[in-house]
Amino acid sequence: MMDFQLKVQKPLKELVYLELKHKILTGEILSQTRLMEISLAEKMNVSRTPIREAIKRLAEDGLVKVEPRRGAYVANISIKDMLDVFEVREDLEGFVAELAAQRITDQEKEKLRLLAKECEDAMKEEDKEAIIELDEKFHNFIVECCKNDTLSQLVHYVQELSLRFRYLYYDDYSLYDSTLEQHNRIMEAILAGDAQNARHEADAHVKELKKFVYELGRKMEIPVEAE
Q: Which fold, 4-74?
C-alpha cells in the first residue's frame, strides 16, 4: 500500500498512474495480468476513479489492452517492440554523444567520471536495481551535457520504452563486462572532445544491446510480434 498522503506535490490520479506504470515497466505486474479496479483500489488505498483514469492513460501508452468482456490487462511485449526501440536509440544516442563531446564542461567531465565509476561498482556487485538506476543516470547525464531541452525530452520518452525490457537483459550478468567497456569507450571519447568517435562508440553500444536483446528474446520465447 502506498502512502499517497506523503506525496502531496502531485495530484492523486497522477501518482496512481505513475505507480502502476512503474510496476508494469519493471515487471512487478506481469504481461497478461488483469487490472481489476476494485482490487487495485484496495491495495493502493484509493477510490476506483483514479484507478480507472490510470488504466485509460496506460492503454493510451500501449502498456495496457482493454477488450470487451475481458476487461483491462497488461499488454504483451514482443521482440519487435524491443527492436523498434533500439532502432530509434541507435541514431538518437549517437547524436547525444556527439553533441556532448562538443559541449561538455570541465566540471561535467568530473561528474561523468564519477557516474561511470559508480556504475562499474554496481555491476561488480551484481546489484540489478542499482545498475539500472546508475546506467540511466550515466546516459541521462550525457544528455544533460548536450544542453538541449528538446533532445532531453525525446531521450526520456525512449528510455521509458526501454525500461520494460531492460529488467530482462540485466538479469544476464554476462552482459556486464561488455557494457562497462562500452561505457568507458563512450566516456573517453566525450572527455577527449572527439565528437565523431563518441558517436561511433555510442552507436556500437546500442547495436550490441540490440543484438543481445534479440537473442535473449528468442531464448526466452518472447513473441516476435505483439499479440
A: Arc Repressor Mutant, subunit A (1.10.10)
